[in-house]
Amino acid sequence: MSFIEYGDTIKDGDTAIVFLGHESMFPVKVQHGTVTQTKYGVIRHSTDLIGKKYGSKVTCSKGGWVFILHPTPELWTMNLPHRTQILYSTDISIITMMLELKPGSIVCTGSGSLSHALIRTVAPTGHLYTVEFHQQRAEKAREEFREHGVDHLVTVTNQDVCKNGFGVSNIADAVFLDIPSPWEAIGHAKSALKTEGGRICSFSPCIEQVQRTCLAMEEYGFTEIKTLEILLRVYNVRTISLQIPDLGKAAEDNSGTGFDSSNPSNQGSPGANLQQGTVQFKSGVPLREMVGHTGYLTFATKS
Amino acid sequence: PGARIREGDCAVLKRGEVFKAVPVLRRRKIIFEKQWFYLDNAIGHIYGTTFEVTNGGNLQPKQDVEETTTETKEAGTDNRNIVDDGKSQKLTHDDIKALKDKGIKGQEIVQQLIENSTTFRDKTEFAQDKYIKKKKKKYEAVITIVKPSTRILSTMYYAREPGKINHLRYDTLAQMLTLGNIHAGNKVIVMETCAGLLLGAVMERMGGYGSIIQMYPGGGPVRAATSCFGFPKPYFDNLHEFPLSKVQSLLSGTFSTETLPSDPEDNALVEEESNGLTEEKQTSLQETEEEPTTEAPMEINQSEEQETMDINAEDVEFKENKEKENKENVREKQMKQWERRKKLTETAALLREKNADGLIVASKFHPTPLLLSLLEFVAPSRPFVVYCQYKEPLLECYTKLRERGGVINLKLSETWLRNYQVLPDRSHPKLTMSGGGGYLLSGITVVLDKGKSDSSGLEALKMEEPSPKRCKVQDLHC
After folding, report:
1. Which of B59, B110, B197, B322 could form a disulfide with B41 if both were Cys (CB 3.0 to 4.6 A apart)?
2. Which residues of B261-273 are buried (b: 16+ CB within 10 A; e: fewer)?
3. Rounded CA gap, A74 and B43, in Å?
């Protein structure tokens, strides 16, 4: 198993995802002799995990059960220990497509927030050059990539991207900037990008940052400058029952017209009443609250 | 070094936000954005080059001319004194046409329009900017030739022919590729009626590694958009296809390669199970097996044509040759049929392994029957994602999947997309935006618990109820 290649059975040393239920999961490092506590009880790695198929149901000591899933960058993004501000899959999806990333692509980024997703996309022949300002974080990142078996696809450089750039020139197919002052790195981005057709993306929460970045992109001769934002709307599938109001009867002792639930001809009609006086239907109900803003995405082409 | 435009490529013409895919062929008249021209001169240039259309209908690389913005522009403060009577432009339609006919470049025409506008210098700087941009857009006919990619083709199709792709908006497509964890080395099942756009996008993200099985309705898959991508031939070596009409038989174990959907005229060689060949079939197979390389490949027409062809009965030699040609025709046809059946059998075997790494569906059909059947071919702990232009079918699909079991993390979603104009002191969202880009239902497969009928109900309850408490984790090794 690895983040870039599927495996069938759980092995010692794997990173697996324990799925407990709706929106509830966490990663574990599979190791002989170890146990993992969950609210349903204990999971013993040696007997419950190792050798089992990914996707299997595992019964925990208290009787409840969980599913063990193969890791993917998307699941990892939802569950990783947050060291920096992270990008979620919705933004990552459009970034990947707009930067035209694919196997073999060379990408440069100014932060580690979407490394796993990028590595997965450019594998097995591409490469990710990521620049990390913070020395400790750079080390931790290198360690993590080693553990996940992807270190041959990524180079972590510890420097300030705004001052010293990405450490490569004229070879990148794409550059992704997720830093506070991206306009300061546009020049470096340009020199890292291949001569013609390279793509750049900058992610900024504030419109002022976007304005400065767009100006810088224009100054450095980038074309096709486009800014957009993308938001995810999720719907919960629910069966809803609505009560029929009592509007009384037209006249005394009449069988009544219209929507009368006691009228036998109404039984078995679509929206059938389970109990008297209600109509049931399936609905995709939006969440009460949703993410209203993550950041503005600005794309451009080096020409 | 950038890729160069070559004859035979599929290239995309771009002018502003307008795209059009065209084949690069010599002496082929192209009409794009009210202009017509030949692509001949573009051949050999790097993709991304911008061209101007000359009077003769030829393309010429645009020279980067410096904008003459050094002169301090006179501008007003507001529009209180500007009267919009339609008379402020002194050049008439005929004047402008005369300029165009003289071969005056677009840039110069715009300059002329500015000089001949009585109200230009009264406009605010912003209004002047907007005016110039508008005129440039109209009169400066520059075309960029870009290399096709998912980004470009999905944007193009959504703008030009959304009906062909079931109104799958490009950001929705982007989500599908990520939700489906499409990457090199996968074995993916694709079912789409989007002219082959989704298939192309999947192929791009797999880079030729791994394998794809495309399920198709009717006689054969439509891959019009796929050919636009310009993938190298090896990419197609691991692209398989399988007819939907055979899915039920494959699932129930009664699959045979009798009468392929695309064989209308053939007399189908009746077969038993694909693994039990009759003697007849065996000998004819042997025949075709021996002959293929020794036969000279001929331009063979349909067998009906031969029957209607005039044969000079007195010309015996001619007749003999015709007979020989007939035999070769039949053999070649048999060989093609045999090839098709062989491929179909191979693909069926791939599906029977039930170990696909993902399922991705975007079609005009109701999603429920597709999902319920095609999920059988997917391994556990793998993602699936289905697109539908409408929400309601996915509500039903969700419910049916819950009843079936073997899926978790079901999510029904859509993405909201907004474009922005970013200019100093003039930044705001653009005036129009897409009203909807379709809906996605995604999830992850798990081992299907066929034994206990109770558990699926419990599972459904467990999975649907939001669990507010996070579990206590004491042993995290990550």
Report:
1. B59
2. eebeeeeebebee
3. 42
The tokens describing B5, both together, are 């435009």
Show the tokens assigned to A213: 């970045």
pLDDT tens readout for residues B390-413: 999 999 999 999 999 999 999 999
Q: Give me chain B's average pLDDT, please.
A: 82
Q: Tell me the C-alpha distance between A130 and B24, whole Å.
A: 38
Whether residue A169 is annotated as binding a ligand: the answer is no
**pLDDT confidence tier of residue B240, bands split at 50, 70 and 90:** very high
Q: Chain A within 8 Å of B383 (Cβ-Cβ)?
A: yes
Question: Which sign does the torsion angle of CA B14, B17, B21, B27 carry?
Answer: negative
Contacts of B467 in chain A (CB under 8 A): 20-24
User: In this structure, what token pair is assigned to residue A107?
Assistant: 């990408």
Nearest by CB to A55, which of B173, B209, B446? B446
Helical pair B279-290 and B316-352, crossing angle rounded to 10 deg = 110
Q: Which tokens is A191 given?
A: 């020199």
ipTM of the complex: 0.91
DSSP-based three-state secondary structure for B459: helix
Write out pLDDT tens, residues A183-202: 999 999 999 999 999 999 99
Tokens linked to A36: 């993992």
Full pLDDT tens readout for chain A, 303 residues: 678 889 999 999 999 999 998 878 999 999 999 999 998 899 999 999 999 999 999 999 888 899 999 999 999 888 876 655 578 899 999 999 999 999 999 999 987 778 999 999 999 999 999 999 889 989 999 998 998 889 999 999 999 999 999 999 999 999 999 999 999 999 999 999 999 999 999 999 999 999 999 999 999 999 999 999 999 999 999 999 999 998 888 886 655 455 544 545 444 455 555 446 899 999 999 999 999 999 999 999 998
Kindly give the pairing relationship between strand A127-132 and strand B59-61: unpaired
Any known ligand binding at A178?
A: yes
A234 touches B412 (CB < 8 A): yes
- Taking the C-alpha atoms of B368, B372, B375 and B381 in order, what is their torsion angle to the nearest 10 degrees? 90
Dist. CA B177–CA B31, nearest whole Å: 33
Q: Domains of chain B by range and CATH?
A: 4-65 (3.10.330), 93-142 (no CATH), 150-255+337-421 (3.40.50.150)
Among B395, B414, B474, select the one facing A282 at the smallest CB separation.
Answer: B395
Structure token digits, residue A116: 């796993």
Q: Which of B178, B197, B434, B447 to mutate to test the interface with A (most CBs of A within 10 A)?
A: B178
Which residue out of A9, A96, A215, A235 would a mutagenesis test of the B interface target, given it has the greatest number of B Cβ atoms within 10 Å? Answer: A235
Inter-chain contact A6–B207, Cβ cutoff 8 Å?
Answer: no
**Runs of H (alpha helix) within B64-209:** 93-101, 106-115, 125-139, 150-160, 170-179, 197-206
Q: For chain A, list the domains and their CATH numbers.
A: 9-71 (3.10.330.20), 76-231+292-302 (3.40.50.150)
Amino acid at A174: A
Return the number of CB contacts < 8 Å for A and B: 232
The residues, ordered by sequence, that sit 6+ positions from A136 with a Cβ below 8 Å of its Cβ are: none
**For the range B35-40, what are the long-range contacts, defined as Cβ-Cβ under 8 Å and sequence gap of 24 or more?**
B35/B141, B35/B143, B39/B5, B39/B11, B39/B145
